[in-house]
Amino acid sequence: MTDSAPVARYRAALAELDPRISIAARLRALFSLIEAELAAGVPHAAVLDDLAAAGLTVQQSTYAITLYRWRKAQRAAAAGPPAKPKPPATPTTTPSAPSATAGTLDAIQGRPRNIQTPGDLRKIRDMRVDLEALRREGLTNRNASATPDSTKRNEP
Amino acid sequence: MKVAVLNYTGSVGKTVVASHLLAPRMNGAQIFAVESTNETGADLGLNVDQLRGEHFGRLFRELLTRDDAIVDVGASNIEDFLTHMMRYEGAHEEMSYFVLPVINTGKAQRETIKTVAALASLGVDSDRVRILFNRVDSSVEEEFPSILAYAAKSGEVQANPQAAVYENEVFELLADQRTTIAEVLADQTDYRALLRSAAPDDHARISQLSNRHALRALAKPVDRQMNAAFTALFS
Question: What is the pLDDT of residue B46?
């Protein structure tokens, strides 16, 4: 039986690699080929099948996270060297006395207040979570407190 | 100790956490997989009792009679699981801890925060909700600042950066070979000698032997790292 075109391409690319490198590294080496398949409309499940046929069996979770990281690195490379750090979006006039919940409340929108029914519980799935706002807030707090103990637990 | 492993989103490593991090360090606790569609520990070659979300009553009764148990709640069943937990007064108190594995994709982090919010709204106190940072590339602080900020601000969850499992292909190899770290560490086979004596054109055998050899080299440090992660998770 002959390989389909994508399988043959994956197989040829894999043959060029050092067999001692990790699965993720092998996967990264194939991503330019994989992106071309995805751009042509090939579903992720079919890509995984083709990779397996070419001799690279990868779990869906490994594929997903490696693809995510690869795309992130590609975006970072395309954006060039990082610009000067942006000023914080929130005022920092009194960093020693941050509002207890204001930032978190800004970052989380649409959280149901009173959970009484399974329907209320399901509405939590519709919450909007702004990770970037949380990240900024976390950095601000870290810089403000500047405690050396990074493992300190959050306190209720 | 009874631990539920859950997250609204899939592919964060719940099953690997249940099978490779928790079970070996919890007296070989029985794993109950609440999962109807995705991979469970059974697919990894482990003895797993498989249930669906609607079988919560049976699960609840099973948990009452056990000292140690792990409940691996699949993403396709978590809504059913939480809904049933809502119906049984005090059901969540049967679990010592709720462990939420998270990986550093945006979706996983957002869904983890929603899972924390759901548990908090069901009355689960923050000390029993724990984040397990999974598939960490280099630094929890660099890769999960939003989760750490949410934990610090909301007080709904414990997020210890030391409770981390680092990216490692050992889990892929373990799944592929349907084995566990404990089995790998107990294996005394001299794969180097077998590789030397294998026929050069027997690629399948060479690949299999190479993987077993690599597995054993990877397993020891991973086992030590998992011990540290387990201690940090429940400290």
Answer: 53
The answer to whether the Cβ–Cβ distance between A138 and B152 falls below 8 Å is: yes
Burial class (CB in 10 A: 0-12, 13-18, 19+), B213: middle
Alpha-carbon distance of B175 to B39, in angstroms, equals: 10
Contacts of B121 in chain A (CB under 8 A): 112, 115, 120-121, 124
Residue of A nearest to B152 (CA): A154
Helix (H) or strand (E) holding B196: helix B191-197
Rounded CA gap, A52 and A49, in Å? 5
- Predicted ipTM? 0.76
User: Using the beta-carbon criterion (under 8 Å), do B153 and A103 form an inter-chain contact?
Assistant: yes
pLDDT digits (tens, 9 = 90+) for A41-55: 888 889 999 999 988
Is pTM beyond 0.90 here? no
Set of chain B residues whose Cβ sits within 8 Å of the Cβ of A118: 83, 86
CA distance B80 to B64: 20
- Nearest-by-Cβ selection for A121 from B105, B121, B151: B121
Q: Taking CA atoms, what residue in B is nearest to A150?
A: B161
Taking any CB pair shorter than 8 Å as contact, residues of chain A touching chain B are 19, 22-24, 57-62, 64-65, 68-69, 100-101, 103-104, 107-108, 111-112, 115, 118, 120-122, 124-125, 127, 129, 131-132, 134-135, 137-139, 141, 150-151, 153-156
**Per residue in B108-125, pLDDT tens?**
999 999 999 999 999 899
pLDDT band of residue B139 (cuts 50, 70, 90) is very high
What is the predicted pLDDT for the residue at A105? 54
